[in-house]
Amino acid sequence: MPRKNNRNTQGRIIAAAWKLFYENGYDETTIEDIVFESQTSRGSFYHYFSGKDALIGTLAYVFDDKYEQLEKEIDPDASAVDALIWLNHELFAMIESQISMELLTRLLSTQLTAQGEKQLLENGRYYFKLLRRIVRKGQQAGQLRSDMTEREIVRAYALWERALMYDWCLSGGDYSLVSWTEKMTPAFIQGLAGK
Prior knowledge:
mainly alpha; single chain; Arc Repressor Mutant, subunit A; elongated; 0% strand; 2 domains; Tetracycline Repressor, domain 2
């Protein structure tokens, strides 16, 4: 039981931090603001995080929470191709409307320079588990290529999403991420479709 409480406390801190980062900006949000918003304590904050910068990597887990929510909304009759296109669209709509470019840029840059854990590549994340389920089902139904392994297709899809996010940040958001993904992701995913 305490483990669940610990997870809830950590989750409340993460959710509060990202809400405040979006509303007030990263630099304007203090640890005291996060503690107050999460209704936790300073001790709890420092139990999980060494400081505010340590929260940047948790954006990957914010994405996972979104994927967990989206999995419940996937049309059970959708093909694997359609499910992957829809997931990509929904995540990028969330990013464009709820995650500041500054914070996404910080996450991506920390992943490039991190010596240890790289959250975006963590194979045990909900994101990768969901992708494996969709790809496995799609391959079994002949909807996705059989000349590539499940792992290769998942890796290609994840690489595609990261590439879109990196380019959007590099371009300073001078185009709509959602509009671009609506146009380009179906073409990319069709290359993974079964023949």
